[in-house]
Every structure is written in C-alpha cells, then in structure tokens.
Amino acid sequence: MTERDLVELHHPMHWTDPGYRESCAAQRLSLTRLGIDCAESGMTVSDFLHPRPAAPGDIYNTTVHAGAQGTQIGRQNTMHNAWGLDANALLRFAGEVLAKLPELRLDAPAEAELEHEADALRDIASAQRPDPTALRRAYDAVMNALGRAPESTAGQWLHEAGTAAINNVLGGGG
Fold first, then answer.
1. What is the pLDDT of residues 43-56, one digit of tens each?
2. Would you put residue 70 in left (φ > 0), alpha (ψ -120 to 50) or beta?
3. Helices 108-125 and 88-100: crossing angle, nearest 10°?
4. Distance of alpha carbon 71 from alpha carbon 81, whole angstroms
5. Fewer beta carbons within 10 angstroms: which end of the chain, N or C?
6. pTM over 0.85
C-alpha cells in the first residue's frame, strides 16, 4: 500500500531516541490523500487501484425528483421514477381548517387571516406540481394564524392534523 501511495509509514521515535530499535517493529500508518479517496470511495483497494471500464452499453441517465425514495439503477434494471410531491394531505388539512373556522372562536380579523392563509395553502397544494418551499411557507402561515385561536378541542385537533400533514408531505419539520 505504501508503494501505491495509499499510506505513509511513520516511526513514533527518532532514530537517536533510547528504545528506537525495539519500536521499529511498531510503525504508525497514516492515510495519504489518495488513501483517503480510496477509503471514501467504498470500493475495495483492488477495485480502486484497478478500475474496470464500464461494459459497452452501460449508460445510466437518471432524474430523481425531490422526495424520491427507493431509486434503483443498474444493469438490466430499468426504473422510471416519476414520483413527485403528493400534497393531498396538506390539501385536506386546508379544507379541514376552513370547515372548522366557526369552532375556533376567533375574532373577525383573526378569522379572516386564517381563512386567507388556508385558501392560499389549498391553492398551492392543489397545483399540478406543488413547490415544496411555497407549501412550507403556506403551511407555516396557517399554523401561525391557527396559533392565535383560543385553546379549544378543534384548535388542538387542527394543530395535530397539520403536523401530521406536513410530516406526510415533506417528511417532517411540523
């Protein structure tokens, strides 16, 4: 490995130090930059040092959309992953907020704000290709307006439903 510049040998002692002769058998190794590249590649040392060229015809073109899971790529394995963002849970949540507005006992300005924010979330979530950043902002605005409601069972239920919806759609952060 030293000949391939993957590691460097270091003597822990200088040759003039007492006990040097006994310590020569115990040398310290450290990875070189190439050795670090080899270790981080995940390949065996042999495969790293002697890479095999790809067989003719091995061409992998991939497009992975935000949130894609379980992507597989390999020889004789064709997988078309067109999974996009499914915002239906947030769309339902926006509808639930609008349906439960009267139960929240908000004053008129706060109710109008929550209605406006829930409408905005519904519009963004119902788009053909919802933008994750816009969804997150709209969700945060609804939850912020919902937080101004007096404590109630409906408010607590909506808060929990909103957290579950954002976790379902964007994978957490509720």
1. 888 887 877 765 55
2. left
3. 160
4. 7
5. N
6. no
